[in-house]
Amino acid sequence: MLHAQLQVNNSFTAFGLADKYLKGYGISVSNAKFTGDTLAKGYFYAPNTDLGITEGIILSTGNVYNAVGPNGYVDRSTQFFKNSIPELDSIAGINTSDAAVLEFDFISIGDSMFFSYVFASEEYGELLSQASNDVFGIFISGEDIVGYKNIATIPNTNLPISINNINDASADYKYLYRDNYNGLYVEYDGMTVKLKASMKVKPYKIYHCKIAIADANDNTFDTGVFLEKGSFYSNNLCGNITTEIDFPQVIQDSTLFNVIEDCRDIKIKLKLNRVPDTTIYINFDIQGTATNGVDYKKIDSVITFEKGIDSAIITLSPLYDNIPEASETVILYLPISLCDAYFPFTFRISDFVPFEKDTFTQNVNVCYGNYINLQGKYKGGVEPYSYNWNDTNITGDSTNIQPTVNTTYKLTVKEACGASLADEVAVNVYSNPVANFSFTITRYRVAFNNLSSDDATSYLWDLGSGDTSQQENLTYTYIQPGLFAVKLIAINNYGCQDTMIKIIDLFNSIEEQNQNSNINVQIQQHLINIEDKSNTHLVAEVYNTQAKLVNQILFKQSGLIYTHKLSKGLYLFIIKSSSDNNIIYRQKFIIY
Question: Distances in Å between the alpha carbon of 357 and those of 283, 363, 376, 411, 412?
Fold first, then answer.
């Protein structure tokens, strides 16, 4: 956030103040110098204040830091007891002193130049008399001026800017004055509104400017002038010329363009900022390593703006010479105004590389319902390439398709210079076989009968137990109960396939075997208690419905299997001999 405050810095040189903080559009300055005490000049920054100017330069008859508010003094003063200048003596009508003078040479591109400023003083409110009349002037000398001309005057008059001419008691010019008795931002007791100065000059002629302020009669009660940043500017008599270059190549920067032999013409449009009332001819330079009329069609080095037409076209047409060579350049120094101002635009001409196919998908077969990727790669020519598949909106070099019938796909590719190539790929669509099977369960033994369609020629079984088979029909014995997902893949001669999955339930089909005089089993909510009278080593196991072993103990005479960590569902509990794995007890149970 910017706070409302006047800030001052006196560390800048005379040229720095004139060039960076005073001059604006269409003005160039040189040979700047300052006469006076170094504390009498500076840069100021005054955002959000009532000064009327945000930033610029300040000149003062005292210390520029005295200008910083609030207004707390009656007679804020710094006395340098230094120089006067004749121009201000003449305006004041008395001798001046403590002068601060910034002067420099300048050139204007137009026929007028301008300033904006605010004049302020501690003398306002206390010293209004002919004897004390601090003054300010902007004195211009040069072409067609006898002596000098002061352009810092009251609007529509020749009266100079001074304490006695603009004040709160002035009948005619009171409207130009602002009282600052209780000012928060500026120390001076009074100030003017923002005033403007202007003068007619000759374009591109050297003039001298002397900006001066001084005390009159006394060395007290500081007076200052605030000159607005960029307000010293010129009108645009010359007229700007803008340049538009119509070419799709990648631009390395705003003035370097890559172009290709025998490619499309480059249109360079120059546009005036006004419609000319007469035909205008502008000469420009053509340079570079390429030869005009040999490496590119002949370009005349004259631009013509016809009367009533605000634009002109230059055409650059690179020619194909069939000679391998390094890049060559064309540098066009194109006008940016009507006043002898030019800017270089560089065109780098490179050999044309033939446009050709790199790789392209060959004719392919695809099974119904499947996707396939078609791809075309190209090289040479000029990028970017544009792609079109079968007149669709697919614009990339590849596409994923899912054809339902035999189809020929055509890809048309065009490079930036206009050359195009077309390629085709035939996609044959084959139908899929239909996989199916039935099964018959005899305890752990399952007979599988293949019912797939006649066009299937090979098969792959996944029996859900980790075993596979490629037989057409088979019988398989499972070693333990459970639910098994059996998958059959049927494949035809074209590699097309179909899959059928069925669940084989070897869990619910199992008969319980829980009558054994030697064994007593009590299945409770969180454990299974086992007692055995055979005095042999036995194994107790618990299986889930996926035939996964979830608990197991080896015991003799008695044992406990804890089930509290098992999830809800159906389980199979078995007891078998540890010596031959013969099952002697089998019972299903549910955990709720």
Answer: 46, 16, 8, 11, 11
* CATH H superfamily, domain 356-430: Immunoglobulins (2.60.40.10)
Is residue 405 within 8 A of residue 429, CB to CB? The reply is yes
Q: Which CATH superfamily is domain 241-350 in?
A: CalX-beta domain (2.60.40.2030)
CA distance 295 to 536: 105
Contacts of 69 (CB under 8 A, 6+ apart): 6, 183, 184, 185, 186, 187
The pTM of the whole model exceeds 0.70: no
Q: Which H helix or E strand runs over 73?
A: none
| Residues 436, 451 contacting (CB under 8 angstroms) | yes
Distance CA 561, CA 554 (A): 10
List the structure tokens of 16. 């720095």
Q: What is the pLDDT of residues 450-463, one digit of tens each?
A: 999 999 999 999 99
Instruction: Please state the domain extents for the chain.
Output: 7-234, 241-350, 356-430, 437-505, 519-591
Q: Give the separation between CA 467 and CA 335, rounded to whole angstroms.
A: 84
How far is residue 191's CA from residue 124's CA, in Å, rounded to a whole number? 8
Q: Take residue 442 and report the two structure tokens written for it.
A: 């005899």
* CATH topology assigned to domain 437-505: Immunoglobulin-like (2.60.40)
**Which pLDDT tens digit goes with each residue over 568-590?**
888 888 899 888 888 888 888 88
Q: What kind of fold does domain 519-591 have according to CATH? A: Immunoglobulin-like (2.60.40)
| Region at 464 (left for phi over 0; alpha for psi -120 to 50; beta for the rest) | left
The per-residue pLDDT for range 334-382, each reduced to its tens digit, is 888 776 778 888 888 888 788 888 888 888 889 999 998 888 898 888 7
Instruction: Report the C-alpha gap between 41 and 161 in whole angstroms.
Output: 19
3-state secondary structure of 87: helix
β-pairing verdict for 27-35 and 96-108: antiparallel
DSSP class of 184: S
On whether the CB atoms of residues 460 and 497 are closer than 8 A, the answer is no
DSSP letters for 453-477:
-TT--EEEEE-SSS-EE--SSEEEE
Tokens representing 157?
């008059």
Q: Would the CATH topology of 241-350 be identical to that of 437-505? A: yes
Q: How far apart are CA 575 and CA 565, in angstroms?
A: 20
H-assigned helices in 402-467:
none
